[in-house]
Design brief:
This protein is mostly helical. The protein has one domain (2-57). It has two helices and no strands. It has helices at residues 2-25, 35-57. The protein starts with a helix and ends in a 21-residue tail after the last helix. The model has no long low-confidence stretch (mean pLDDT 77). The chain crosses the membrane at residues 34-51. This is XapX domain protein. InterPro entries: XapX_domain.
């Protein structure tokens, strides 16, 4: 959980830094200027997070078929 909090903090800090740098340099922000675009970015982010969590919780059904460091399948799990 601590790693997730650190990732969120770094992401927010990076977002503010990019926005600040764009404003300081006088270039347009890479963020969408309208509500529809912002909602699109938000929905894509939420979809990415939910998919990542869903795949992390799925059972490992093909673990026995995976090769180890030698390239040989693990005979103990077969």
């Amino acid at each position: 959980m601590k790693t997730q909090t650190l990732k969120v903090a770094i992401g927010l800090l990076l977002g503010f830094a990019i926005g600040f740098g764009c404003n300081l340099a006088g270039i347009p922000s890479p963020a969408p200027p309208v509500l529809t675009g912002a909602l699109l970015v938000l929905s894509m982010t939420i979809g990415w997070i939910l998919t990542d969590r869903w795949f992390a919780q799925r059972p490992k059904v093909n673990e026995a078929n995976c090769a180890g460091p030698t390239g040989e399948p693990n005979k103990d799990k077969m």
